[in-house]
Amino acid sequence: MPGFGDPRARLVVVGLAPAAHGGNRTGRIFTGDESGNWLYRALHAAGFANQPASVARDDGLVLRDAWVTAAVRCAPPANKPTPAERDECLPWTVAELAQLSRVRVVLCLGAFAWAAALTLRAAAGHANPRPRPRFGHGAVALEGEPLTLLGCFHPSQQNTFTGKLTAAMIDDVLATGHSLCDR
């Protein structure tokens, strides 16, 4: 499943994979499930989306200065993508990002997306430092490089129901994303 959003985006949001009962069902990533409800509410609050929810491909959602995609392009078994699946999808994600010439910040939703973003950087010809930057909520890595990485816990129900990720936490990360895009 391809990503979607503003072709002039400076912020790219990378998730894991389409959810079986969300993006896989609706045909648009983070659409029609609880993770998407969290993400689009936060993108709307930060000024990246024209509305706070997305329930279907034709629901009028428009992203501004943002693009949303996933490391894996199809719904994986048990909703748990593997590194092999990520690597299989890598050429499509690289090609997709190559079309987005203004990208400055990659917002990684979870450690899997963080690892995927580092793999994407390398595939696009950007060297990754050793040791590799570590994922953390609010972590910023490779600032000033062609693609700054920004970490955020994934807005899965497991994280939101337990309070590991709160609305204020995702709002803060998106505010940081705005600031990094403007540098």
How does this structure look, described?
- With 183 residues, the chain is α/β, with parallel strands linked by helices.
- The protein has a single domain, classed as Uracil-DNA Glycosylase, subunit E (3-Layer(aba) Sandwich).
- Helices cover 36% and strands 13% of the residues.
- It has six helices and six strands.
- The protein has a six-stranded mixed β-sheet with strand order 1-3-2-4-6-5, with helices on both faces.
- α2 (34-45) packs across α6 (167-181).
- The longest helix has 16 residues, at 83-98.
- The chain is globular and about 40 Å long.
- It starts with a strand and ends with a helix.
- Low-confidence runs (pLDDT<50, min 5 residues)? none
Task: Specify the CATH homologous superfamily.
Answer: Uracil-DNA glycosylase-like domain
Task: Determine and state the CATH class.
Answer: Alpha Beta
Q: Main β-sheet: number of strands, strand sense, barrel status?
A: 6 strands, mixed
Question: How many strand segments?
Answer: 6
Task: Determine the structural class based on helices, strands and strand pairing.
Answer: alpha/beta
Strand order of the largest sheet: 1-3-2-4-6-5
Name the helix and strand elements from N-terminus to C-terminus, one letter apiece. Answer: EEHHEHEHEEHH
Mean pLDDT: 89
Distance between the termini: 31 Å
Question: In CATH terms, what is the architecture?
Answer: 3-Layer(aba) Sandwich
Beta-strand proportion: 5-15%
Domain tally: 1
* Helix fraction bin: 25-40%
Shape: globular
The number of helical elements comes to 6
Rounded radius of gyration (Å): 15 Å
CATH topology: Uracil-DNA Glycosylase, subunit E
